[in-house]
Design a protein that fits this description.
Largest sheet: 8 strands, antiparallel
Distance between the termini: 5 Å
Shape: globular
Number of helices: 3
Number of strands: 20
Order of helices and strands: EEHEHEEEEEEEEHEEEEEEEEE
């Protein structure tokens, strides 16, 4: 399967059983924001976790002279890490579903690839959403019928230098450590505790997969993207 770069679509990575459900049922598994931030020190799957997840702003220590905590003034040490600001759970997106944007080549060791091979850390299979408009239409139809989602937004993640950046973060900004993921995410706000699962219906004709890691070519040749 291949196509011209710039018009490819979105990739979803996961284990084969998850990708099969994604294809057959349109199953979207949303983890909580807390899941991604609370597990940042997991030594085996650190690529999933981000200490800034769920924050509203970060500020570098050279941007803040002092802070006040419970009436006490604390001076900032110049070598301190960034101050991370968070708001109450109801004020930010509570759950996220992650995809990879495929729009331009990724050069890995001098070879043009469709995506960074590190993405297979998220699972040994993938699916490609080819008709993103039809996919978003299914998502919109689901939201219209839903009674437990207060807000939803889909968009591309912007990446920042965590050692230099001060300002707004939110659901659609991440440290550039994760820029290889080229993330497009769907974020929602719901009172649901724990993971949230959507089932949009079959993605036949909208997406292609499963694509197994062992069979994946992941190559750009003559301006064509070749996955399998």
């Amino acid at each position: 399967m291949g196509g011209e770069m710039g018009t490819i679509g979105l990739l979803k990575f996961g284990e084969i059983e998850h990708i099969k459900r994604f294809m057959l049922q349109g199953e979207l598994y949303f983890n909580t924001v807390e899941y991604f931030s609370a597990n940042q020190h997991d030594g085996t799957s650190h690529f999933r976790f981000d200490r800034f997840e769920g924050s509203s702003h970060i500020y570098q220590p050279d941007q803040v002279a002092k802070i006040t905590i419970a009436g006490m003034e604390v001076k900032m040490h110049p070598d301190a890490g960034p101050i991370i600001m968070r708001v109450s759970r109801s004020e930010y997106y509570t759950h996220v579903f992650c995809l990879t944007n495929v729009s331009e080549p990724v050069v890995v060791e001098g070879t043009k690839r469709v995506f960074d091979p590190r993405m297979f850390k998220f699972g040994t299979a993938a699916a490609m959403i080819l008709d993103t408009i039809a996919f978003m239409d299914l998502l919109a139809q689901y939201i219209k019928k839903s009674t437990d989602i207060a807000e939803l937004k889909a968009g591309y993640v912007e990446y920042f230098d965590a050692k230099e950046y001060s300002g707004e973060t939110g659901a659609f900004r991440k440290a550039d450590t994760y820029s290889y993921q080229r993330e497009c995410r769907i974020a929602l706000n719901t009172a649901t505790e724990g993971p949230y699962t959507m089932r949009l219906g079959s993605l036949k004709g909208i997406a292609y997969g499963p694509i197994l890691q062992k069979d994946c070519i992941n190559l750009i040749k003559d301006e064509m993207a070749i996955l399998s």
